[in-house]
Amino acid sequence: MKIAVDCRYIxxxxxxxxxEGILDNLDYSEHEYYLIGQKKYLEKYNGANIVxxxxxxxxxxxxxxxxxxxxxxxxxxIIPNFLIPFGIKIPVYSIMHDLIFLDVKETTRGFKDRLIKxxxxxxxxxxxxxxxCVSDFTLSRCEFHFKKYSKKCYVNYQGLSKDIKEYCEIxxxxxxxxxxxxxVGNVKKHKGIKTLLSAFSGVEGFTLKIIGEKDNxxxxxxxxxxxxxxxxxxxxxxxxxxxxxxxxxxxLVQPSKYEGFGIPPLEALYLGTQPIISDIDVFREIYKELxxxxxxxxxxxxxxxxxxxxxxxxxxxxxxxxxxxNFVRNILIRIGNKSGKQQPHKT
Length: 347
What we know:
This protein is α/β, with parallel strands linked by helices. Helices cover 35% and strands 18% of the residues. α1 links the parallel β1 (2-6) and β2 (32-37).
């Protein structure tokens, strides 16, 4: 088969990492792939055809620049989001990460913005032949908001990046934990940064590093480490430094009020650091049987930050449950079935 993949998300956190996870686990000798995006990110994938496109996938221009020649060449296209570019005539296999724009009003800029996103979400579900939901929680939100199209949905758990696994092979030794707490992600309101900062103010002898983009989504928070004692806002950092910061921390805290999956705690577990995470449904699903600590509210988080972390050793369980090889295979099986061609199964 000839399969296109929208890779313009590479370079963005979140969906960009999912896109890389897909590309790193494709067998380029099994099918012919057409990778849409920037050559600098894609030329390392030997055997793939590169369709250069440097438009921003989240922009209106990005929705209008699909190369229509691919409709005649390809049997299907994989899109790692709900934004389906105009002009696509071949079957679409999309990925749904969350429906936060509909579930949390504060993530949109008013009624008009929310309506536009709802229209695009509905269009994405309608246009897709199959929709991989990254959690059962996300699938349930698809059923709630778009029951008519939810039969196309299935749960397909993502995995960890190739980079973090290579880092762990190189840095296999255990390290002494520093009196450090890390948070990884953006500072949007639903991420719960205010809860973390308030809880941290009751903890002595620790530093807190908030790692990620300072995108000013959190109203009322001065994004300046000088405004908070023993708190550092690092901004975006390299993967190697990120993994080192997590590996040497006593805890990673994920205080989110809403997530579709929530990858940083999984990365922390893989690096041998115990996560303290908010007690929300999706975390109960994803981190079932894994050595995480749940908290409810600021006071509870403060008390749990004062405890000694447990020893974390669960890489085998993570690799078995969450890996991109299975994620990719589940998508390709559906492409093969829809095209009427037998999809080979590889172990």
